[in-house]
Specification:
heterodimer; A: 169 residues; mainly alpha; 0% strand; B: 383 residues; alpha+beta; 4-stranded antiparallel β-sheet; two-stranded parallel sheet; 16 helices; 6 strands; 46% helix; globular
Chain lengths: 169, 383
């Protein structure tokens, strides 16, 4: 197999990764919103108590709902944007590199979220949730962080191999 | 490959190799019969079900995918339609289980192909037909394996047809695969039917070239895709070229079986025999049509000047069911040839250390072996 074909095969491999993980990222973004809404419907007090003081959310319910919708919408939009761009690049369309920054930012956020939970648990802070649900949350966060990092890495490697291909020509 | 090549093209190859019209008819009938000799048919004619050379769709739907069922599937498809290229191929950093399947990938000009053709030497015309079917399929079905395996036979969205333009160049057009088995393929729009994606490794949907639909069996098709085993390396399949090679190699093999050539070697093609009709054959192979039977029939009749009867699956069935000594009937000889081919390939796979086709032993004292030898001796004396 000649060098050109090796480079092309690696580009294809990373594009395939982007396509799969891009789809997963979009699903993750939608799932985050669904999960929050389900939590808000089933245990509204616990969710809101974590976010705001009781007096605040009692007096300004509508405003808070509006703010939550904007934040959730924004969060979902970020995931959908990153996932969609990754999928498009996975299918061979050229995309600007801005989304790679978003991907790594989301990965960092998940990593920090997982670290926060672990530190909170280790520091002996009184957490209302069960240990099992905390462990699951950490695993989900770390999985998301690794997935997003891999997606960003694949996008970077595609650009690297494309530059190599151009240089060799 | 389809009837247009297995029946009519094989007839043409046999005729060009020097066989008479009647002998060519026997050979091509046998070649096409490999695609129809299922357990259902054998049960109907009260023949041995072990001699099955294919499985009907309904049989595959009902086929077991436990160890025994998978071995049966692999025995049939690897022996007759996806002859393994290299049973001792090496690949780094893979498990033994994966390696066994990797080694079943079909390709042309293998050692097993040489064994297949030599097995038909000094045997019946039916054996020659079986060998020609196997040979032709190594060209059409290359890069796929005759065992259900997602990790070997799967394809994905990276599948492009290379459609010829008027100026001789090719345009890449993404292939749209659909899963409606009752709808015909539409080459004009690039819509083809393939088997449904099944994530189960051993699903019957992952057998052979199901995931690529009928594209490997269309002589006009040129396409590129990423095979699951290829580590993202692209395969470009040029069926018109491959089918031409298959045709020329069949003539060479049949000349060997007739005794014209002293040996059968890999990578040798009788292009001289084809030269006077090269353009005509290339035009037939390149014509974008799902069924080239009519064209090949006209060519066959032009070659021999004789009428080439259409394939009739029931032609020899009553002869077999009514015969007292079945082995000397047409289907009896076909069954003998099929069993010999299946045994040879199964034993080769087993000898390589893989049990994907089950266990196999060579019983030198078997009356079956003696019968094969006797039949071959008798035919040599008759000639």
């Amino acid at each position: 197999m000649d060098q050109d074909e090796i480079i092309r095969s690696r580009i294809r491999k990373h594009r395939n990764t982007l396509n799969i993980l891009g789809t997963g990222t979009m699903a993750l973004g939608i799932w985050n919103v669904i999960k929050f809404i389900i939590g808000l419907i089933s245990t509204p007090k616990e969710i809101l108590d974590e976010l705001f003081a009781e007096q605040i959310y009692t007096d300004n319910m509508m405003l808070l709902i509006l703010i939550l919708i904007v934040l959730l919408g924004g969060s979902m939009a970020l995931y959908l944007y990153a996932g969609d761009r990754a999928r498009a690049e996975g299918r061979g369309k050229k995309r600007r590199s801005f989304y790679i920054g978003v991907v790594f930012l989301l990965s960092l956020m998940h990593t920090l979220s997982a670290l926060y939970i672990v530190i909170t648990l280790l520091s002996g802070y009184d957490i209302r949730e069960s240990v099992l649900s905390i462990i699951v949350a950490v695993i989900v966060d770390m999985t998301a962080a690794i997935t997003l990092a891999e997606m960003g890495w694949s996008a970077v490697m595609i650009r690297k191999y494309q530059r190599m291909a151009i240089t060799e020509k | 490959m389809q009837k247009d090549f297995h029946y009519y093209a094989t007839y043409c190859a046999a005729y060009l190799a020097g066989y008479t019209h009647e002998e060519s008819m026997d050979i091509c009938y046998s070649a096409q019969f490999v695609d129809l000799c299922s357990e259902t048919l054998l049960r109907k004619i009260k023949g041995p079900e072990e001699a099955a050379t294919t499985q009907l769709q309904i049989e595959m739907v009902e086929a077991r995918t436990d160890v025994a069922g998978l071995r049966n599937i692999t025995r049939i498809w690897s022996s007759f339609h996806f002859l393994p290229y290299d049973l001792y191929a090496e690949k780094k950093k893979v498990s033994k289980r994966y390696l066994n399947k990797f080694r079943l990938i079909c390709d042309t000009n293998s050692d097993l192909l040489v064994e297949t053709v030599k097995l038909a030497k000094d045997s019946s015309l039916q054996a020659a037909g079986v060998a020609m079917h196997v040979l032709a399929d190594t060209w059409a079905h290359r890069y796929f394996a005759g065992t259900p395996s997602l990790v070997i036979n799967n394809t994905d969205y990276y599948f492009y047809e290379l459609v010829p333009a008027e100026d001789g160049s090719f345009t890449e057009r993404p292939v749209q695969f659909k899963h409606n088995p009752s709808a015909p393929d539409d080459p004009e729009k690039g819509i083809y039917i393939n088997s449904l994606y099944q994530s189960n490794e051993k699903s019957i949907m992952n057998l052979g070239h199901g995931r690529a639909g009928h594209l490997p069996d269309y002589s006009f098709a040129r396409y590129k895709y990423l095979p699951a085993w290829g580590n993202y390396c692209e395969i470009v399949k040029d069926n018109p070229s491959d089918y031409m090679h298959a045709f020329c190699q069949m003539i060479y093999a049949l000349k060997y079986l007739r005794g014209v050539n002293e040996s059968f070697e890999k990578n040798v093609y009788d292009t001289d025999a084809v030269r006077p009709w090269e353009d005509e054959i290339k035009a037939m192979l390149g014509k974008r049509q799902l069924d080239a039977c009519e064209d090949w029939l006209k060519f066959a009749e032009k070659l021999s000047g004789r009428e080439v009867a259409d394939f009739d699956i029931e032609k020899y069935q009553s002869e077999y069911t009514e015969a007292a000594v079945k082995d000397e009937t047409y289907l009896g000889r076909f069954i003998t040839a099929a069993l010999a081919q299946k045994n040879m390939v199964t034993y080769s796979i087993f000898k390589s250390g893989s049990k994907l086709a089950g266990e196999s032993i060579v019983n030198k004292k078997s009356p079956f072996i003696d019968k094969l030898s006797e039949a071959a001796k008798k035919r040599r004396e008759e000639r």
